[in-house]
Recover the amino acids of this structure.
C-alpha cells in the first residue's frame, strides 16, 4: 500500500509539473506556431525552445530554478524584401548604432567598385566565422559595431542571392540564442541600385 501511495504521489507531481508549464506558457502562445521541447522532472519542470509569434520570438530557457522569457523584435523582418524606393530612404538614415544597419555581403573586390551609401562590408565568405565573434572581437576585426540580435538589418549583394543566403545563415543556423530576428533582404541588390539610383548634385559634390 505504501508503494502504491508513493507511486500515486509521484505521478500526481509529474502531472502538476506539466500542468504548471502549460499554464505558464499558455498566455504567451495565443495563436502562435510553437516549437517547444519540455521535460518534466519530479520536483522541477525544465524547458527549452522558441515560440514564434506575429511580431516577436519568445525564447524559453531554464537556468537553475527559474524559467524566463526574452522578447526579441521581429517587426522589421515581417515587412519582407526591401524594394528600391524604400532602400533609398533607408540608406539616408542608416546607422550602425541607432537605426537600420545595411550589410554588404559581396566580396571586397566587388565593394571597391561601388556600394550603397551607409552600407558596411561583411563578405559572405567571412560571415560564418564573424558570427562566432563576441562584440569586441567583431569590432576589432570588421571595424564597426556588432548589431544587436533584433536590430533592424538590411543585407544586399550583387543580385540578391548571396544576401538571401546571408540572411538564412543569420536567422536560421547556429545556436538559437545567437540567431538574429529582424533582417530583410534587398532582393534587387546592387544590380537594381546601380541601374536606378541617380545621385543628387549635393551627393555628387560630396564625392
Amino acid at each position: 500500500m505504501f508503494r502504491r501511495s508513493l507511486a500515486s504521489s509521484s505521478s500526481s507531481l509529474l502531472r502538476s509539473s506539466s500542468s504548471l508549464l502549460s499554464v505558464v506558457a499558455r498566455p504567451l502562445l495565443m495563436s502562435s506556431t510553437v516549437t517547444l521541447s519540455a521535460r518534466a522532472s519530479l520536483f522541477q519542470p525544465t524547458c527549452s525552445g522558441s515560440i514564434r509569434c506575429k511580431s516577436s520570438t519568445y525564447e524559453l530557457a531554464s537556468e537553475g530554478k527559474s524559467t524566463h522569457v526574452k522578447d526579441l523584435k521581429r517587426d522589421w523582418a515581417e515587412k519582407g524584401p526591401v524594394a528600391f524606393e524604400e532602400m533609398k530612404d533607408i540608406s539616408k538614415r542608416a546607422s550602425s548604432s541607432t537605426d537600420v544597419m545595411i550589410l554588404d555581403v559581396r566580396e571586397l573586390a566587388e565593394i571597391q567598385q561601388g556600394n550603397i551609401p551607409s552600407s558596411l562590408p561583411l563578405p559572405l565568405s567571412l560571415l560564418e566565422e564573424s558570427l562566432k565573434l563576441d562584440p569586441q572581437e567583431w569590432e576589432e576585426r570588421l571595424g564597426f559595431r556588432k548589431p544587436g540580435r533584433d536590430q533592424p538589418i538590411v543585407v544586399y549583394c550583387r543580385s540578391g542571392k548571396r544576401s538571401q543566403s546571408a540572411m538564412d545563415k543569420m536567422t536560421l543556423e547556429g545556436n538559437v540564442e545567437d540567431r538574429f530576428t529582424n533582417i530583410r533582404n534587398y532582393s534587387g541588390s546592387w544590380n537594381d541600385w546601380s541601374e536606378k539610383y541617380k545621385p543628387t548634385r549635393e551627393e555628387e559634390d560630396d564625392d
Observations:
- The two ends are 89 Å apart (CA to CA).
